[in-house]
Amino acid sequence: MSSCEFESLEKSLESHLPEAELAEMKRILYGKETKKLALPACAVEAAFKRDFELKGYSFEAAQEQLRMPRRIRVGLIQHRIVLPTDVPVVINAMHNRVGEMVKVAAMCGVNIICFQETWTMPFAFCTREKEPWTEFAESAEEGNTTLFCQELAKKYNMVVVSPILEREQLQSTLWNTAVVISNSGNVLGKSRKNHIPRIGDFNESTYYMEGNTGHTVFQTQFGKIAVNICYGRHHPLNWFMYSMNGAEIIFNPSATVGALSEPMWPIEARNAAIANHCFTCAINRVGTELFKSEFTSGDGRKVMWLGSRTPGLSRTRDGLLVVEMDLNLNRQISDKWSFKMTGRHAEYAEELTKAVRHDFRPSIVKE
Amino acid sequence: MSSCEFESLEKSLESHLPEAELAEMKRILYGKETKKLALPACAVEAAFKRDFELKGYSFEAAQEQLRMPRRIRVGLIQHRIVLPTDVPVVINAMHNRVGEMVKVAAMCGVNIICFQETWTMPFAFCTREKEPWTEFAESAEEGNTTLFCQELAKKYNMVVVSPILEREQLQSTLWNTAVVISNSGNVLGKSRKNHIPRIGDFNESTYYMEGNTGHTVFQTQFGKIAVNICYGRHHPLNWFMYSMNGAEIIFNPSATVGALSEPMWPIEARNAAIANHCFTCAINRVGTELFKSEFTSGDGRKVMWLGSRTPGLSRTRDGLLVVEMDLNLNRQISDKWSFKMTGRHAEYAEELTKAVRHDFRPSIVKE
User: Fold this and answer.
1) Rounded to an integer, what distance in angstroms lies between the CA atom of residue A216 and that of residue A227?
2) What are the C-alpha distances in Å from B272 to residues A338, B52, B200, B236, B283?
3) Are A79 and A307 within 8 A, CB to CB?
4) DSSP 3-state assignment of B103?
5) Over 70: is that where the pLDDT of A5 sits?
6) Hey, are the CB atoms on A349 and B353 less than 8 Å from each other?
7) Cα–Cα dist B137/B28, whole Å
8) Strand partners of residue B192
9) Which residues have a Cβ under 8 Å from the Cβ of B275 and sit 6 or more positions away?
10) Hey, CA dihedral for A346, A195, B270, B280, is it positive or negative?
11) In chain B, where the domains are located
12) Touching check for B199 and chain A: CB below 8 Å?
């Protein structure tokens, strides 16, 4: 069986395990079961017609005495590219496809939607080619794609997180950036990818540098959100600092390959949610993208650019995941587990400040 | 099926899944397959006779040109208590059982062995009782248990990590401490539990306080090791700082209950290994411990003090896990993935220093 035929972990477990064992397995692998969310028939039908997967789940918090529930719905979109990589650049190529998926998200009552990393283009940063790929770069504030997202935001009263390849107009610098658009249609701001991979062909640092927007959190009508782009998921301090700035939901739009890091996907975002008492939402693109200059990974083996998975969605099909979450859950979990309160952050600030000095002497005991 | 009958995730998968799907499932869940380690027949026989599980695996690194492989073997021991909790305190109660398990570890060529959290006693810190449990506390440097471990260390030329309840003689302060004994038999030092749970009945802070030994790393003949005790596994900064001080292997001896946190076990230690380019070894005790004063969890429900699992060992039986690891793998992984190099630690030191101030103003953008 090739790995592209393996549709999802859940499907495989569900088709083979006896019921009681399945329940215990799911408890160990996934924790408390998330309830399925009933989605409107019109949305289910529209997703079927447009050939993408649609799934819904909900996280419930306990009823509190003083705070009303803060139930909101988040939508996560994964999709393949729609044009082959050898046709001329079309900036709007993906707009239609994603537009129809957002329409379905709106039917499902989604308040905040997040697209995959550099969603408007093939993920070409692992090739040796710069042209024509950098032509997909746009202004975060005034580019076509931002204008398109502003329309969606206003039309559906939805916060839109739109990760693009950004060209900063003044210096023509490229960045890997998520544009955050308020449900009013205004650009709330942007968050640039903080950590850039330098792994074999995933040496994206020839395209853009480490972001300079720090760990900004965006206060939206539906909660405080932040965007940790792709490789930043490997850095626990990155998640942590978004959380220290108050993020209730941290999005992690990615573009990566199953053969390279798939075993880490179920671990890193979940670990960040556990450690920081917040929601984390991970997205990866799907599909196969072929490039003219076939490329190799850093270790000389060929890389398979294969379909990849978000938890709960197929590893191979376009899809929309709708998640209802009561943001009250964050504080409830924090009050119970106290990882922030017991975090001794001041001590770490001191230790880390010493540890980053060039003349740092590590605390090592020898005989 | 009650959860105590569910012996292990691996066993359940192996008995139900078709071969090809099992392989793909294991790749996604566990990453690259660890090879089984051939263990000597005498050890297998001894473990069988003494009724404990024995398993061996190995992590292989690539052959380098300038460095010889640094293959070492680590042993991890999980066990139940041997005396019921209503008999008089016997400091040495566990010594025999663990002694015979260490003997088998020696047959398997183990260089560094680690026992479970406060291994000499029932894990009573969740009861309301202080007596007689605090009588198990011993000096880290001169207690009976340390003397016993020094003998083992010398006899088997083995580094011994012995987590005990420590009584600091001068101030009669209690600590949750791991004593690290060199293979020469000398006490190399100690590492105290850095983060203390305050979760319902897991409010251990009435017994001991946050440790004051920082993130000391112990340079042994077989590699640089550190000990992150129990609840410290929830704090990514804790793992991180041990690693910043040079740890190649971080042990995580624990005592916790499956119903409470089992879904997190496969995540946190693995995430730490990924993020910090090092080996992490997690141990939990097994068995059922009953206490006179039956206790409830913080949310008013009864807590089941049920068997718990280390990856690869049974959730219910005593066991010894032997793992061969080539420590060269750490630098190889680091050179490939570069999470340290791309970590931007100096920026985090600055940000964190600001974030821990009482007048910190988080970086939040509003419309």
Assistant:
1) 9
2) 19, 29, 26, 7, 15
3) no
4) helix
5) no
6) yes
7) 43
8) B177
9) A234, A235, A236, A268, B236, B239, B240, B339
10) negative
11) 34-352
12) yes
Query: Which residue from A320, A329, A227 is spatially nearest to A274, judged by alpha carbons?
Result: A329
**Can you read off the two tokens belonging to residue B319?**
């066991």
Taking the C-alpha atoms of residue A160 and residue A115, their distance in angstroms, rounded to an integer, is 8
Q: Where are the alpha helices (DSSP H) in chain B?
A: 9-16, 19-30, 41-49, 95-107, 144-156, 236-244, 258-261, 265-276, 328-337, 345-355
Q: Are B120 and B67 in contact (CB under 8 A)?
A: no
B34-352 CATH choice from 1.20.272.10, 3.60.110.10, 3.30.479.30, 3.30.450.20? 3.60.110.10
Give the whole-angstrom CA distance, residue A111 versus residue B329: 45
Residues of chain A in contact with residue B201, where contact means CB-CB under 8 angstroms, are: none
Catalytic positions of B, written as ranges: 117, 193, 230
Task: Output the six-digit token pair for A99.
Answer: 């537009």
> Using omega within 30 degrees of 0 as the cis cutoff, is the peptide bond preceding B132 cis?
yes
Quick check: B16 contacting A, CB < 8 Å?
Answer: yes
Nearest by CB to A345, from B20, B31, B356: name it: B356
Determine the distance from the C-alpha atom of residue A98 to the mean position of all C-alpha atoms in its chain, rounded to a whole number: 16
Give the pLDDT of chain B (367 residues) as one tens digit per residue.
344 457 777 888 888 888 888 888 877 777 777 788 899 999 999 999 999 999 998 888 888 899 899 999 999 999 988 888 888 888 888 999 999 999 999 999 999 999 999 999 988 887 767 788 888 999 999 999 999 999 999 999 999 999 999 988 777 788 999 999 999 999 999 999 998 887 766 778 878 888 889 899 999 999 999 999 998 998 999 999 999 898 999 999 988 776 667 777 778 888 898 888 888 998 888 877 776 655 443 333 332 223 222 246 776 788 888 888 788 887 777 777 777 777 888 889 989 999 888 888 888 887 8
DSSP 8-state code for residue A38: P
Q: Catalogue the active-site residues of A.
A: 117, 193, 230
Q: Can you read off the two tokens belonging to residue B195?
A: 């983060």
Q: Does A217 contact chain B (CB < 8 Å)?
A: yes
SS3 content of chain B, % helix, strand, coil (to 5): 30, 25, 45
Report CA dihedral (B49, B50, B51, B52) to the nearest 10 degrees.
-120
Residue A97 reports pLDDT greater than 90:
yes
**Residue B214 sits at the chain A interface (C-beta within 8 Å):** yes
The region, left, alpha or beta by phi > 0 then psi within -120 to 50, assigned to residue A230 is left
CB neighbours of B5 closer than 8 A, spacing ≥ 6?
none
**Which pair of tokens denotes residue A19?**
């019921």
Contact B344/A194, CB-based, under 8 Å? yes
Homologous superfamily of the A34-355 domain (CATH): Carbon-nitrogen hydrolase (3.60.110.10)
Contact B246 A364 (CB under 8 A): yes
Task: Tell me how far apart the alpha carbons of residues A57 and A324 are, in angstroms, rounded to a whole number.
Answer: 6
